[in-house]
Write a structure and sequence with these properties.
Layout (H helix, E strand, L loop, with lengths): L2 H19 L19 E3 H13 L4 H8 L12 H10 L31 H4 L7 H4 L6 H17 L4 E4 H8 L2 H9 L10 E2 L17 H8 L3
Antiparallel strand pairs: 1-2, 2-3
Helix pairs in contact: 1-7, 2-8
Length: 226
């Protein structure tokens, strides 16, 4: 699949999720940035879309903000969502992952607003809570929403299976050069020494039995994407 087609499919995936999320009863609103931590992860496909947006809109100073905080602790996943699914279906042990929301805010956050909100990755789009995190000190997410979120994460990784995934900061800094963007677009990206994790095709969907019937309308829409 060519890059423009992948971006088109990604936009359609976002649209399907927006249709789902608009009916949710959530406390999230503008200037509510409790979930905007430095632990957000994403794929190179999402990173490509964001970097293109940053460059074309003259916001390259955002790369400096990321670079300034790059030595600070952040969630750097050992496994992608589909790699996790593969371990689950194989009955293998899942390694511990280290992450803490107290590690600080997203380096892109500006006065509690997101400067890339229109092209934010799915990891940001899917974090919804029924309570105000800043007041409660935690997020409250319905189990079915978590299942739906995992489904979308699996599909986004699936269409970017030639790419990789990692922390938002790491992916954006990795892709920010013109040469790297071109290599990714041509399908010749070398990320061996990037510290990012290779994406995978979907081995099995992470849908628990109690959610299989309810999730079918969403799943069918995703399966029809081209």
């Amino acid at each position: 699949m060519e890059m423009d087609s992948k971006i088109s499919v990604l936009d359609k995936i976002y649209g399907i999720y927006n249709d789902f999320a608009c009916d949710l009863d959530v406390a999230c609103k503008r200037y509510c940035a409790g979930c905007c931590t430095r632990n957000v992860t994403m794929t190179t496909l999402e990173g490509y879309k964001i970097v293109e947006h940053i460059i074309s809109n003259g916001k390259t100073n955002l790369f400096k903000n990321i670079r300034k905080d790059i030595d600070k602790k952040r969630f750097q996943p050992k496994l992608t969502t589909n790699a996790l699914a593969d371990l689950c279906v194989s009955g293998k042990d899942i390694p511990d992952e280290e992450g803490d929301c107290k590690w600080g805010a997203c380096p892109l956050l500006t006065e509690n607003e997101c400067p890339i909100y229109a092209v934010r990755p799915f990891g940001c789009r899917c974090f919804v809570s029924t309570v105000i995190c800043g007041e409660k000190g935690y997020a409250d997410v319905d189990p079915f929403v978590i299942t739906v979120n995992n489904l979308f994460l699996q599909y986004i990784e699936h269409i970017d299976f030639h790419g990789c995934s990692g922390n938002l900061s790491d992916v954006l800094l990795f892709l920010k050069s013109k040469e790297t963007l071109e290599s990714y677009r041509e399908g010749s990206l070398n990320f061996t020494d990037s510290g990012l994790s290779s994406n995978r095709l979907i081995p099995v969907l992470l849908i628990p039995p109690e959610h299989r019937l309810r999730i079918q309308p969403i799943l069918q829409r995703l399966k029809c994407l081209k």
